[in-house]
Amino acid sequence: MKKEDIDRFIERNLKNFSVNSTGWEGIIRQMLFEFAIGGWNLEKDVFGKEDFGSCAAIYILKIKI
Known about the structure:
Layout (H helix, E strand, L loop, with lengths): L2 H12 L2 E2 L5 H14 L9 E5 L2 E5 L7
Helix pairs in contact: 1-2
C-alpha cells in the first residue's frame, strides 16, 4: 500500500463527514488512516456525522444475495 494511495483515500473521504464544531479534522484523518492500514478497501467511501457532540463513522455495505 502506497502512502500516496492512503493520502488520496483520506482527502477524498474527509468531505464525506458532516461536523458542526471544530477540532474533528485531525481525529477524522487519524481514523481514516487507521481504516486504510487496517485493510479497508480504499475504493470504498466512508461517511460520518457529528451527532450530539460525538462523531460516528458509517459506511454503506452493498450485499448481493
